[in-house]
Protein: Sodium-independent anion transporter
Organism: Methylovulum psychrotolerans
Amino acid sequence: MPPYLSFLYLKLNNRNQDMHAERAALAAFFPIVDWLKNYRREDISDDVFAGVITAILLVPQGIAYALLAGLPPQLGLYASILPPIVYALLGTSRTLSVGPVSVAAIMIASALTAPEISALGNPIQSGLILSAEIGAIMLAMAMLRMGGLVNFISHPVLAGFTSGAALLIIVNQLPQVFGVKMPTCALDLGCYAQAVGSFSAPTLAISLGSLALLIFFGSPLTRLLKKLRVNLSAITAISKCGPLLTVILSTLAVSYADFGGNPVAIVGPLPSGFPSPHFTSAHLETWRLLLPYAGFIGLISYVESVAIAKVTANLRGEKIAPNQELIALGSANLTAFLFGGMPVAGGFSRTMVNFSAGARTQMAMIIAATLLGLSVIFLSASFANIPKAALAAIILVAIFRLVRIKHILHTWRYDGGDGMAELATLLGVLVFGIEQGITLGIILTIASHLRKTSQPHIAVVGRVPDTEHFRNIKRHSVETWHHLLLVRIDESITFANVSYIEDYLAGELKRQPNTRHIVLILSAVNDIDATALDALELFNQGLQAAGKTLNLSEAQDKVMDKLEKTDFFEQLQPGKVFARTEDAVKALG
Amino acid sequence: MPPYLSFLYLKLNNRNQDMHAERAALAAFFPIVDWLKNYRREDISDDVFAGVITAILLVPQGIAYALLAGLPPQLGLYASILPPIVYALLGTSRTLSVGPVSVAAIMIASALTAPEISALGNPIQSGLILSAEIGAIMLAMAMLRMGGLVNFISHPVLAGFTSGAALLIIVNQLPQVFGVKMPTCALDLGCYAQAVGSFSAPTLAISLGSLALLIFFGSPLTRLLKKLRVNLSAITAISKCGPLLTVILSTLAVSYADFGGNPVAIVGPLPSGFPSPHFTSAHLETWRLLLPYAGFIGLISYVESVAIAKVTANLRGEKIAPNQELIALGSANLTAFLFGGMPVAGGFSRTMVNFSAGARTQMAMIIAATLLGLSVIFLSASFANIPKAALAAIILVAIFRLVRIKHILHTWRYDGGDGMAELATLLGVLVFGIEQGITLGIILTIASHLRKTSQPHIAVVGRVPDTEHFRNIKRHSVETWHHLLLVRIDESITFANVSYIEDYLAGELKRQPNTRHIVLILSAVNDIDATALDALELFNQGLQAAGKTLNLSEAQDKVMDKLEKTDFFEQLQPGKVFARTEDAVKALG
């Protein structure tokens, strides 16, 4: 029974309850119970410190990723308050920071600008419906115990996709950096040059200043502070303040400097106060149109979140439960929907900031989200003047390290097939679009995997003299019969390998053209799927047309049960089904 | 060496050539050589008969499927002349009839009405580019020996897809039957009723008359003629004339009857004469936009063609070569592109007509295509008055049997997972669209397959006393060591199973918390892919954080070669790599 069901079950049957079992089920569904129980005094100071540091990053990131997704800034801020708190209650990672993330944001942007979605003319509604659908999809996957789906997206595909999405984000941000509109130039390079030529000087100045400040707050400042022997937690605190300082300085510049009538694009006014719960209604058709996008965004968000959670959990010897993560992330997205937030996931840069600032538990994220909530209530008026160029610079610096072209070479050197999948995914994302690129990568990976694993072990067997044992004719000296071909198949027969099996049998028949009866020994066959059954029926028709028969022996009970529901045994006639291979030899040999 | 390469190779090196080998290579690339060599006099009469019968079907089908695809009628006719002749030279099926087919036509219609494609405003150009791209994709797949890809689309997915596409075709044809425009009513039923209410009486009369005639020419007429003891080939000839008669009678009705100013939609004028070769040029962007559609249509066309070819080949004990089929179908599509035809594939109804009319070889299709070519040259003026309603009736009768809702129940009873995949594909095609439905079905099938096969055999082993053999501790009484965990993994480690392996190892570590060293025995591991390597690195970090080491033993040379290209061995330190498990026990035990 899944933990959430067993918890409900125990709640409903609380007569004679086993307190211990209830507490275990409660802890499985609310992992927070587990770590709160062992919470120590020194954890508090670590978590408060990490929470404050992370909160400083969350304001600019929340606004920036909402704008990147093509949504108003408040959707990013609202997504940074309650959803991480819901994740803190339900998630199994102690350091994952949940909120708006860059890769999901560019996927949302791609969905919102798709012709059929932009025709709806209501991006806020579409964004909220995406949150709801992503949440519902994740919870449905959890109910179906599909947490293992994370395994079907191989790391090379994920790496190629991430690099491709990051490049798309960079291209998407360049107009903000130059203060121009996104040009529609297709392959005309001169047109791009012209677009860049019409740049806004004050905007570019803010962009370059912001970039310089952010880069300086990276390793140069850390190195400098280390040389000055500043203590480590102070270094961490100072170096994480780059984005906040960038936002403050650039906002001051825009508010007080005079750019001579050359305006710099700013975030603009936000609704004031905290969002109240709200249920967005829309036509069924709107929900249907958005569903495929929600599926892709949800899948990628889940895979990335679990990957990031695993990295940090491994470093601390903790454990991530994939299905519980689906429940936590799904609930966080539904919360985002109810409180006016964009879709959320576990973010790479925000989790790394939280982790490296020393967060011990999700208490750090609860503190960060609370601080953010307070700032939304009391400071939202001052967010209006933040220049978009500064936010673009923050995105560029955060995203730049995700473009890992060299990683493709690295993968290729290790494994050619994986390298090809990584490159194809990257190119697919850039040329065809995000969904198509991921699809291509997954197809290539799984196709090469299936090709490798679609050749089951098959043996032509004969009888060990004076026994009832049948063994491979290549390895043992055994009796065989002129008109009888005994073939043992050592794996389940499925769509992936039935062609190989057919070809194998056809090859054996060609080598032994006098064969009148084939007996398939199915002792090791656990299953025959619908495709394999169709293929066997067709193969049998071919044999009958050539005057030969197909027979089965030693089929397992569950395989017999399945076949008995069909007319396969009638089709086989005059071919027969034998319980023992020895019987087949007696009847046909 | 693939047959086409070996053929070229031999052509280029024709000194000292082995005549026999050249002829074999020639026959592999041009299977026509093979059957022409053994062509007998009685084959000629069979093939001429079947060719004439098939030609009678091809005119209405060619026009009807072009209109279904949203293309002018001549694109269907041109696709029915040279492409089947090219297939006849190169294909390995002796009875497959290649030309415009219904399922590909509805996919083309879906591509041409997609917002980004219809914005191009040139459906003829888009249709021809699809032919070119489908041809190029098939040839590329042949070069990469990807004929086996056909195995990754399971029969339930194909059946669900076919039923869904057939339902879409039926819905698409209903407006033609009633003589109304396709209404845009979404979920408003009253709106549909209103659309049907405005039907054109003469059009509906032609539709119903055509349907009645076509249904009568099916089994009722065959039964009647059998009762009258007409000989069998005459019955075949007569019963296949239904579509032609429908077209002739309905055309006469439209040409000579007076419908009192209520016009019946007709095909309209066609260009006269035979198409000359023509190379359509277009912007690179147009080619790029159409490529994903071409990929899907090409994949489905190939899978359906091979499936149909296999059915007829099996009944005659012949053999289909998947890669050669890719070459033949790809060349046929490139021919369609050059001579102004829509994309082609092997069609179900046309192949069944050809086969049941007694075709022995592709000579039948060469004759049918030649007759069709003559009719295009001399009769195209008379095609203009064919009423669209009669063509819609022909499509409906041909397509109706492809809707097999009961088949889903049938599959479900046999195999629940397969039944679910079939239903999901059908619903996916109807709700989300053709490409999305297929994708969903393939994902479900492969996901359930991967889940079944992603649990490799793993054993904790110990040493058989006084030997250097290591055996499963569950089956043998063996020596073990307190701080040492020896684990043998019996399959390649890949993205599909590495999570399972990790979980297994974590479970063992939990049961034996005193373990200080884990040794993975890799004797049966043929490969470690990039995802698995990443996961092992992360697992090792976790072990190191807990003060434990990861070690390897008995790795195969090729696995060692791959790992040596990375820094994995450095990461393992102080964990080590041992040639023999015995060495590991000596060092760590």
User: Anything to note?
Assistant: The CA atoms of residues 487 and 505 of chain B lie 8 Å apart. Chain B touches chain A through 70 residues (CB under 8 Å). The radius of gyration of chain B is 31 Å. Chain B is about 65% helix and 5% strand.
